[in-house]
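Annotators were shown the component list below and the corresponding predicted structure, then asked to write short factual statements about the assembly.
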Amino acid sequence: MKAKNYHMMSGYQKVIYHLSLFFKNLPHNLKKFFKILGKAIACFFIRIVEGFANFGRTFSEGNKFTKLSFLIMGLSCLIYGPFWMGLSFFLIEILFILFIKEFAILYLVDLTTLGTQAEVETFNEAKGIMEYITADNSMLILLYSVLSLVVICIFIIAYIQSTKECLNAQHRHEREEQAQSFKMMLRSLKDENYHITLLSIPTLLLICFTVIPLIFMILLAFTNYDANHQPPGNLFTWVGFGNFKDIFGKNAIKSYTFLYLLQWDLIWSFFATFLNYILGMILAMMINKKGIRGKKIWRTIFVITIAVPQFVTLLLMSKILGDNGTVNLILERFGLQTIPFLTDGHTARIVIIIVNLWVGIPYTMLITSGILMNIPSELYESAKIDGANAAVSFFKITLPYVLFVTTPYLITQFVGNFNNFNVIYLLTGGGPQSTVLYQAGETDLLVTWLYKLTINYQDYNLASVIGILVFVVSASLSLIVFNMSSSVKNEEQFQ
Amino acid sequence: MKKSYKRSRKITNGIIYIILTVMAIFWLSPIVWLLIRSFQGEKGAWITTLLPKQWTLSNYTRLFTQTDMFNYPLWFLNTFKIAVFTCIISTLLILMVSYCYSRLRFKSRKAFMNLGLVLGMFPGFMTMIAIYHILKAFGLYQSHISLILVYSSGACLAYFIPKGFFDMLPRSMDEASIIDGATRSQVFWKIIIPMSKPIVVYTALTSFLAPWLDFIFASIIMKDNYDKYTMAVGLFKMLERENLYEYFTRFCAGAVLVSIPITILFICFQGYYVEGVAGGSTKG
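Structure shown to annotators:
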């Protein structure tokens, strides 16, 4: 298909054309992606080298106070002003030294071994009680080491900044310029440096509750922190890539579980995304059709099901469909065979997908109705004049148009479903349990398996490996979104 | 010719009405079932009749009077408190971050945005255990502050939709006021925020609802401290196997009471919700 024929294609062909273009360009895009990645890494190292060069230049250009500032942070600023800046750098240094001496050093020395002294019970005969020898705790050593390392990184940034500022202060003094006063600094935080004011609190929160935990959990993937190595009784240690090797074939049952669940996860996300999408759109079209009365009431009826919390509706569903649930009781009363809705692997999978329709269709309906109203009505009118019936105009106009507009939404939905915790956990809890799978049930997704491994079985190392793999899948899918949406942006609009 | 066209349209509309009615029944039946069960006199989750034999209001009254084991009114207050604080803090944070990325140009802006994107792609459950230990180290274990902090910090990554919205606002307005001598903070508070009512309402609504709906994280932090539970964790506890027979009908009553305010909020602000989701997700 050649690009110059683009205007003559029907909507469907356009979508197919885009898809084929995407796959055709995939190797090229991947190459571009790795090129950019490589560039970014190279840039990073160049910046580090530049930083060192700057550092040396600062040192050679500085006078004795500035040179001394490398030892006592902010000394030049203290002498030449701005005084507030020098004082804060100096305080940062003191606090940092205290932090290292009182806290970080205790844990960082054990980082390579993650502790050697496990907790031992001994019987104290004099007192007649069991006593515990104070011991290392691998988990705390690792956690606090990560915390210390993050603090050290932040300190290094502050340190480099301080040397720069000291040199600036010296230069200003030599040119006999006025230093920036405290008041001016506060003013600039409201104006040209407003981004610092806005981003400081969110960044702090993110470092505490996202970055540090993530680094900690990623590091856990390289340890043997599982149910048999629970500190303080049993210490854990580094095992390199052992856990990854287990998942990719060395440990038969673990790798089988991973592949089994990955396969089901992909099937599930496919059906959950596309079935919901198409059926939700059909519902939206039925409600929006000319001549249908009470549009608002119909919409509200379906919106109610989104508004009622999922944990309520899904828990109810699991009780209604359970082995002794209402549906089976009704079947029994009529003398029919009961159906194991949630306790037979294959049936449970189908039931989950159907129940998810109940959850998802109203949501798609809500979102697509806005888009449907924006489709230019001339398209339908001219189609009608050409003698197209409702089905033809749906497949030739509506579906391609909406698909075109919502491709990014569809893929984010796909990623969302890939990590859909609530539906599976509340409905079946991943069950029915299976003996051929490692700590997982037949309807478990990778995320619910991850949850079970951490909460129920304390296999933290395996859980971290799965988390990393889930990240890889979601990240590559999101990469596709960005490629797609940038290609959509560059193309002229639909029509 | 015209008549037959009209008749065929009538028939299709009739068919659509039938389909919509059937679907509405299918969609509403679990909710109606929940309502009926909340008025049920006999105990237990499994009953053999479609309608309960005895009707009663005692499930509702007992929620508020028998508070020795499951303190429903206290949970309600807890959740309300957490939700109000989370709503205020995370709405502020989200709007600040998205304004910053949308309008301010500074060094390492792209780096920050990409980092946010990457952080958001790790499954949230991965970090739960580490967060739990960090909170313990800070001495915030089993407190409501910890929940507010964690919900708000998660919100810092949800800047896509508001950023998309801010991107679409005309830039000329704030450029003009900067020339007139307004600071960037004045532009944010006095010009951008008043123009962005839909997105403010949308973020406030979603962050207010988060604590009502989350049960996983709250249950990990609170463990067995029943008095600190939020609504969702408490109701989840009621349905555990050992409580199921005794508390099932009361669970239904409790669930109805939680759903009512959420449903009303949702229906009132439906328009803003759609605008937020659709605007942000289709722009790409």
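Statements collected:
1. Chain A touches chain B through 95 residues (CB under 8 Å).
2. Residues 490-495 of chain A have pLDDT under 50 and may be disordered.
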